[in-house]
Amino acid sequence: MDGAERQDPAARRRARMVERQLRQRGIADERVLAVMSELPREAFVPEFEQAHAYDDSALPIQAGQTISQPYIVARMTELLDVQPGGRVLDIGTGSGYQAAVLARLGTHVVSIERQPDLVAGAKARLAAIDLQPGSVEVRLGDGSLGDPDGAPWDGILVAAGAPAVPRELADQLAVGGRLVIPVGSHHQQDLIVVERTGPNDWRENDDGPVVFVPLVGEGGWEG
Questions:
Q1: Assigned domain for 49 exists
Q2: Which residues partner with 128 through β-bridges?
Q3: Average pLDDT estimate for 85-107
Q4: Catalytic residue among 68, 95, 111, 144
Q5: Residue 66: which CATH number?
Q6: Of 4, 20, 66, 109, which sits most exposed with the smallest number of CB within 10 A?
């Protein structure tokens, strides 16, 4: 532990989170581990939840939404496997934490959120932390059908559960790109990874059960 960690309780909590919740559970991408060891998660949760910012659980935010459990953020990011300079579509901005993780990995992120209050809050939080200028663009809208005007995307990450993989999202991937999306019922989903292996070819893998709020919109569940 260096001097900064001894002085900063949040840094100590981040270090424990990375070691116990991420590395010990199999998160192996050192880039993801490094970003999440530095990014202040407490800046992305409501003030009354900041003491729990590094707990092994999802936390409530505005508009009945949540900030995902740290392990889930790390696992989805690792599965997306985007490289510096890549372009990522982040669907369901929420607090902005996932977009910040992706941006710190050197990607350009377009993040779409359907709740106006969440858009304003995410923009403020992202502006207050150390990110490359212009690396994250937060938009208000229905992201359930993606952003065809910005396609093809190197990665698409969906932080809400859909009843099925929206074909529109798979079609917006670049060849070699990945879509990471929870798919299932309102109450439980499986984390599905769709990789575009050719102009007309896709491959799907199931990474196991997860629980997310529903994806509301034309490509998801009715509001």
A1: no
A2: none
A3: 97
A4: 68
A5: 3.40.50.150
A6: 4
